[in-house]
Amino acid sequence: MGGICRTGDFMRVIRNRFIPFGRRFGAINLFGVLFYKPNISLSPRVINHERIHSMQMMELLYVPFYVAYLVEWLWRVVKCRGDLYKAYRSVSFEREAYQHENDMDYGSKRRRFGMWRGDQNS
Q1: Mean pLDDT in the chain?
Q2: Residue 9 above 60 pLDDT?
């Protein structure tokens, strides 16, 4: 049975066994809703990582976020010679989220389009 709660200003959180698919990922943010598997710890770091994705989505008006993410990921798959996980980790949206996931104040100081700025304080 899944559980639902709200966290911060950006996300609804739903615990379930189906989304995300596969074994390698324990959480995914879809249109500002965070789905996570019961066997993972929903730590402040994970929530902050997904909150950064929510900021990216809102900034790009959701659908363009997914289009840009998919196009970049496909390009990275080619550049990473088919290594899907390496491609995922090198997507600009993920680089920003992983780089700042431990900074719980990042949302208040994040510059617009931080995923494409490439600077340490984006």
Answers
A1: 87
A2: no
Distance, CA of 42 to CA of 52 (rounded, Å):
15
Both structure tokens of 38? 């019961």
Q: Environment class of residue 60 by beta-carbon count within 10 Å: exposed (0-12), middle (13-18) or buried (19+)?
A: middle
What 3-state class would DSSP assign to 35? strand
35, pLDDT greater than 70: yes
| Contact call for residues 28 and 18 (beta carbons, < 8 A) | no
Mean pLDDT of 31-46: 92
> In sequence order, what E strands does 1-122 have?
3-7, 11-15, 27-30, 33-36
Share of the chain above pLDDT 70, in %: 88
The closest of 30, 52, 57, 93 to 16, measured between CA atoms, is 30
Token pair for residue 2?
A: 């899944």
State phi, psi for 110 to the nearest 5 degrees.
-65, 135
* CA-to-CA dists, residue 50 to 26, 45, 79, 80, 81, angstroms: 12, 9, 25, 24, 27
